Structure formats: structure tokens, C-alpha cells
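In practice, a research group might receive sequence data for several interacting partners and want a quick structural hypothesis before committing to experiments. The following worked case mirrors that situation: the sequences arrive first, and a predicted assembly follows.
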Amino acid sequence: MEVVIGDGSHLATVGADAVEQALAARPDAVIGLATGGSPVPVYDELDRRVRTGRLSLREARGFCLDEYVGLPAGHPQRYRAVVERDFVAKVDIDPGNVHAPDGLADDLPAACAAYEQQIRDAGGVDVQILGIGADGHIGFNEPGSSLGSRTRIKTLTRRTREDNARFFDGDVDQVPVHCLTQGIGTILDARHLVLLATGAEKAQAVQWMLEGPVTAMCPASALQLHPHVTVVIDEAAAAGLRLAGYYRDTLAHKPEWQGW
Ligand code: GLP
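A structural hypothesis for the assembly, expressed as C-alpha cells:
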């Protein structure tokens, strides 16, 4: 795993560079899209690069990580709608090429299986953008999630619903109890994982993820099993790391040819 303890510019550019690398290899690259505040600087940087003509996502495909169950079509907090606002509307990707699990399906297990198949049919995810929850969740894989899990229904923890209540008028009761999420196994199938985290409230989860045991109690710790992971964090999120000095040294001596 490569750990970048960076400033605001790293938080935007590393993820955008990773997407740019994937698009250079294949213009129809598949991008895994996370919601939440953490990936927004990456999406804004991609917007900037598209506007200056440096890259194009015209042929790219996108797959959302997760979705709430039961939020009506047109609800502004459906993750499909959030990704449309935060990403699709900013870049030149074809909205028809961006997919999300169907949280309104009558048959949710069938919708999850179909989503897995759609990802496989697309050839798998090239770059998966991730955030992390304060309890170490990725996507909506809460603590206790099987490390081999695939897209499925999950029950959100009280903590996650409280954290996300800020998007629902501060009212935890408006936050759905259930969601559909790519599983840990699904996420680990992506070729390159780029995880972003900022702020002191993420410091404990980041320390568990990078320096703790691989355990279902911290779903993000499964990233230790993946051969190509880039973690981009700010100073506050890095505050608990024992090897922070080593990560800084590694970045300072990163070979120029290496890329992310
Ligand atoms: C939600 C999303 C996750 C996201 C997390 C953290 O739970 N399902 O994908 O990583 O929030 O969000 P933020 O980046 O806003 O802290």
C-alpha cells in the first residue's frame, strides 16, 4: 500500500491522476464511484482537467459503490442522484454509462446479482475511488461484513445513520435503515483502489485500516490484501499512524517513473 500524507492538492490530484492513467490505457476505463465528501476534490479536479482538454471521460463507464434502499426516485440523497450532482454533471461522461445498485427493486437479491454481473460484463473496475467511515466501513460494508462479500443488502449501524443524518435535515429517522453495497470481495476485484480520508474523526479508522490486523471489525483493513492501493490522507487523519515518518520518506523518494 502506498500512503500519501498530503495537502489539499494531493487530495485532489492523486485520485485524478489515477483515473487519467486508466483512461490513457483505455479510453473506456471503468471508474468506481464513491459518495460522501472525501472524493469531491477528485471529481472537481477531473472536472478541471476535462474543461482544459487534458482528458475526456466520453467513453468511460462508472459504477457506484452503494445505494440506500427505498429512497424514492427524485430524492436528492439517493446515491445515484448524489453521484449525478457531484460527478456526472461536472465531467463529460455519458450519464447512460453510469450505473448504481437498484435500491427500489422489488427483488433486491436479484438486483444485487444483476449489478455484480453488470460489473463483470464491463470487464471489472479499473480504478475504484473510496472513502472510509469513522467505524472503518467502505462502501456501506459495516463492521462484521464478510471480507469475501459481494453486492448485497446491509443494515446500517446507528453510528453511520447518525453520521449521515447531516444530509437528511439532521434527522436520523429519515436515514434509511437498509442499503445495497458492493461487497468487500467486489471492491477487492477492482484493479486499483484509491482511498481518501481527511479530518481527525477519521484518524482511528485510518490507523486500524493501515496498521491494525485484517479483520471484519474494520472492513477497510481488507485493503491490506490488495496488490495496488493508494491511500491519500491529510495530517489530521494521519495523526494515529505509527509509520507516518516512513510513509513521508517513501513519498519524498518516490521514483519519478512510478506513477500511482
Ligand atoms: C458513507 C458512504 C461511504 C463513504 C462514507 C464516508 O457511509 N457509503 O462510501 O466513504 O460515507 O463519507 P465522507 O467521505 O463524507 O466522510
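Before designing any experiment, note the following. The mean pLDDT is 97. The CA atoms of residues 14 and 240 lie 22 Å apart.
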